Amino acid sequence: MDASRYMVDQADYLLAVWDGEPAGTADVVLYAQGKGIPVAVFWPEGARRD
Question: Which top-level group of life is the source organism from (predicted)?
């Protein structure tokens, strides 16, 4: 997660492609949102969040 935090810390905006799995991308999205960075999440066809 250190590398992901570093990337978010350098970003003005986050574009995330999330397959719905509860790891990795979810943590990065939450981190960015917590820092007030705008986030757009794209869901691949067939992806779902349970």
Answer: Bacteria
- Measured torsion, CA atoms of residues 31, 49, 45, 38, in degrees rounded to the nearest 10: -20
Q: 32-46: buried (b, 16+ CB within 10 Å) or exposed (e) per residue?
A: beeeeeebeeeeeee
| Ramachandran assignment for 48, one of left (phi > 0), alpha (psi -120 to 50 degrees), beta (any other) | beta
Tracing tokens 């943590």 back to the chain, one arrives at 27
Tell me if the pTM is above 0.85. Answer: no
Can you tell me the distance from the alpha carbon of 29 to that of 14, in angstroms, rounded to the nearest whole number? 8
